[in-house]
Amino acid sequence: MELDDLPRPKGDAASKLAGEDLSPYSQDELEERIALLEAEIARVEKHRLNAAAHRDAADALFKKPEP
Fold first, then answer.
1. Which residue range is the domain that position 35 belongs to?
2. For residue 32, is it within any domain?
3. Global confidence as pTM
4. Taking CA 22 as the corner, what is the angle to CA 16 and CA 24, rounded to the nearest 5 degrees?
5. Is residue 14 part of a domain?
6. Is residue 59 in some structural domain?
């Protein structure tokens, strides 16, 4: 069995972050956290757009010609 075939673990990293208590963090630490999260959002968005482009290319390649 390949790793891709295994079920995803419940509770991803974003869910765990959302439940974290932020009160111990200083303003500087919160600013740094925001910057890291914004960078991660950009990375995920880029991956999503690449995956969508890949899917569109596959759909165009395998699309049945219209009569």
1. 27-67
2. yes
3. 0.68
4. 125
5. no
6. yes
